[in-house]
Fold this protein.
Amino acid sequence: MAVSSEELGNTGTLKYPSRIRLPYTWHAGKAGSRFYQEIKDHCKIWGTKCPRCGWVYVPPRETCPRCFLDIDEWVEVGDAGTLLTYTITRYSVPGIQPHEPPYALGIIKLDGAGSGLVHLLGEIEPEDIRVGMRVQAVFREVREGNYLDIKYFKPLRS
Amino acid sequence: MDEVAIIGVAQTRYQRDNPASHAEMAYEVTRKALEDAGLTIDDIDNTVTVCNDFWDGRTISCMTITEATGSHKVPTTNVEGDGTYGALMGAMRLLSGLHEVTLVVAQSKVSEGIPAVITNAMFDPVYERSLGLDAINSSALQMRRYMSKYGITEEQCAKVSVKNHKNAKSNPYAHMPLDITVDDVLKSRVLADPIKLLDTSPVSDGACAIIMAVDEVAKKRCSKPVWIRGIGHCADAYHLGDRDLAEVDALVSAARRAYGMAGIQDPVREIDVAEVYDAFSYMELMWMEGLGFCGRGEGGAMIDSGMTGMNGALPVNPSGGVLSAHPVQAAGLARIAEAVLQLKGKADARQVEGATVALAHGIEGACGQGHCVFVLGR
């Protein structure tokens, strides 16, 4: 069976379309499991606090990456925080995006947390988003124990 | 140190949709690097490949190019990071005393996959991956943070793109030589604010190879060996929220190690030319700060001064950089190859006259999580 000149294109070589299908299941670990359980059951955001440097990690970690120490102290952090940076994704990538673009993402430093949380921003027009603004978590009504149980962070009106 | 030299380099022309297969590209640069070094495949006593399974769409992808790199019967290993880390592994092989001549080959066929889907998989599947983060919008978070912390402007970032695309016009290997203005960059399509299309690097296929040798072999076989004077590498935290994305701590540490080994005390005076991993326009400004070429937050003022242009005191990315060709796995190794060409006086129209000390830099991970710095000398 001959390969047609259309199939060979102007380079004289074939392209071979294919696809990798790869279902995967990840373990959230002890810290991740408790983090999601608290969000799912109580709409509370918890972190872990390093006994040496005092840094509060959200999402929680069982070891402090800075001090290389075990962490076993859990602390509840606020559901509100300060926006450190943001972007509006305006291009479409089927299969990986949580919403049709455009959609806003930011890094939020929750009150009482040391690390920032990367998450969605909502209930705000893109042009109104500002670095340093106060935002608050909005939880989904039906929660499944995953990152999107926090629906997004909305502007906190004072 | 004068113990390991680079005695041969080769690159493919970088382009979208290179009709060659990944192994054919690897073969092309292997053969050309051997020619450049005046060696045959029998002179190579070990190889390092730089393959990434996700980018290549193959499990244990490195094993699919053993024929193409002539590494059937010699010790071969793979580095699944940027090409600079392949060169690092190659140098370590030689310093171990077990080997004399190392071939390092990196290749990427970025156009065969979907970069946003592949880079989305960099992020933790239990946490941020579900946000649709990828290389572009995560870098947009970094660019905004850098701009707001240090008062860097979109115009200053755009100047990097204008400079590097213009430099690419003198580089026959470059994918995107362009005559553009700051206004063109600012008015190009917004992908993820503040990143516009012309702040980003292209989807490039291509390969790069270098041949390294221990000093006795280098002196015997090569009239103009380029010596590795120093290497440093360091990585920062994985989760974006654990880092201040405006800061460059890991690069500062990597550069300090490389400069220490090379005996460099005043990098901006002692280094003649630098090739850095500018995957996005703003990155070149941040990397200037991390490499100690200017102070923290002074990357914008540095591009304004013209110092990093071809006629400046420290030309940066005469090749056009990664903004002008981004064959992911090979992009850092291409920085080393370009630095070698500069030091050999073989960089043709993009030559920085009289260059005797050059710096090459690679990154890996989201928003420059890890950095690898090479100082090379004649």
